[in-house]
């Protein structure tokens, strides 16, 4: 079997510069890894590989507030402010959005042990997603409340961030193999893939799979009338017409609709806006001839 488990909230929390949310989900992920390693050791035939797909926000110990001297603090002095936070910033923001700003100081003291100042409240009111704000939308900032909370709450701690986005640092790699054939050292994502394919007896199979399930729609439907429509910021729809048959696929789904009837696929359809191309199964045109 092949099983992939993701601690997805680590990434989401890091995007919002939410150290508490990231740490708590990472600890939960660590528990999941413990289960996987224990199973593999008992089973004797299971490989376990643990790695992120990228870094996010470069969460670090050390920030501008403690620019001089944070390295002299004890572990308790560094971590205690974060340990006092009873909620992730996402959960905290949801509570704050549901009430008037007059209740914010009480909420922040209860859940974050933080004595928020009037100037900080005035700043948080400008959050783009705080609907109870008395400020017109055009006078609000571009940041969400949870991201603004990060700037207020973590601005006076030793926790630092460099970005709300993905970052380019090397990521960790942990590997268990029943016979000791572990992947070690610094590797590219391509090399990790080659290792996994080799361990599963799939050497050379990936290029063929890619050709079969991620073919260019211009080639698959080159003889038919094709249109592409944008449904929203991230979702696109491909429509193919062949006489009385109408085939529709949406990006990032695993099914095709033919004359209103849905058929499930074994892979996910991908759309790349940069070249306006859908990547889908090579034999998808066969659905145009269903009776």
Secondary-structure blueprint:
Blueprint: H1 8-15, H2 19-43, E1 48-50, E2 55-56, E3 60-61, H3 75-83, H4 89-97, H5 104-112, H6 118-124, H7 145-153, E4 159-160, E5 166-167, E6 174-176, H8 189-199, H9 205-213, E7 215-216, H10 217-220, E8 225-230, E9 236-242, E10 245-250, E11 255-258, E12 261-264, E13 270-272, E14 277-280
If you had to describe this structure to a student in words, what would you say it looks like?
- By secondary structure, the protein is an alpha+beta fold.
- The chain is 34% helix and 17% strand.
- It is built from ten helices and 14 strands.
- It has a five-stranded antiparallel sheet, with no helix packed on it. The protein has a three-stranded antiparallel sheet with strand order 7-14-13.
- Helix 1 packs antiparallel against helix 2.
- It starts with 7 loop residues before the first helix and ends in an 11-residue tail after the last strand.
How many H/I helical runs?
Answer: 10
Question: What would the principal axes of the Cα set say about the shape?
Answer: flat
Walk across the major sheet and give the strand order.
8-9-10-11-12
**Global structural class:** alpha+beta
Low-confidence stretches: none
Q: Ends: how far apart?
A: 36 Å
Mean pLDDT: 92
C-alpha-based Rg, rounded: 25 Å
- Pattern of helices and strands: HHEEEHHHHHEEEHHEHEEEEEEE
Percent helix among the residues? 25-40%
Number of strands: 14
What composes the largest sheet? 5 strands, antiparallel
Strand content: 15-25%
């Amino acid at each position: 079997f092949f099983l992939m488990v993701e601690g997805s909230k680590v990434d989401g929390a890091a995007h919002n510069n939410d150290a508490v949310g990231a740490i708590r989900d990472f600890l939960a992920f660590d528990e999941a890894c413990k289960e996987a390693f224990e199973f593999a050791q008992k089973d004797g035939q299971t490989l376990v590989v643990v790695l992120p797909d990228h870094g996010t926000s470069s969460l670090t110990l050390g920030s501008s507030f403690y620019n001089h001297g944070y390295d002299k603090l004890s572990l308790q002095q560094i971590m205690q402010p974060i340990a006092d936070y009873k909620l992730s910033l996402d959960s905290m923001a949801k509570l704050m959005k549901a009430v008037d700003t007059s209740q914010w100081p009480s909420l922040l003291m209860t859940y974050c042990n933080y004595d928020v100042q009037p100037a900080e409240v005035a700043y948080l009111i400008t959050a783009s997603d705080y609907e109870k704000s008395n400020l017109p939308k055009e006078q609000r900032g571009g940041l969400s409340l949870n991201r603004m909370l990060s700037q207020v709450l973590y601005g006076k701690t030793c926790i630092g961030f460099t970005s709300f986005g993905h970052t380019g640092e090397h990521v960790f790699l942990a590997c268990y193999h029943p016979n000791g054939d572990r992947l070690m050292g610094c590797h590219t994502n391509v090399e990790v893939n080659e290792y996994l394919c080799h361990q599963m007896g799939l050497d050379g199979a990936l290029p063929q799979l890619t050709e079969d399930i991620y073919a260019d729609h211009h080639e698959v439907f080159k003889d038919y009338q094709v249109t592409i429509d944008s449904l929203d910021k991230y979702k696109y729809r491909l429509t193919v017409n062949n006489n009385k048959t109408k085939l529709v696929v949406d990006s990032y789904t695993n099914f095709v609709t033919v004359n209103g009837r849905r058929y499930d696929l074994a892979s996910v359809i991908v759309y790349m806006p940069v070249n306006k191309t859908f990547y889908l199964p090579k034999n998808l045109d066969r659905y145009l001839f269903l009776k």
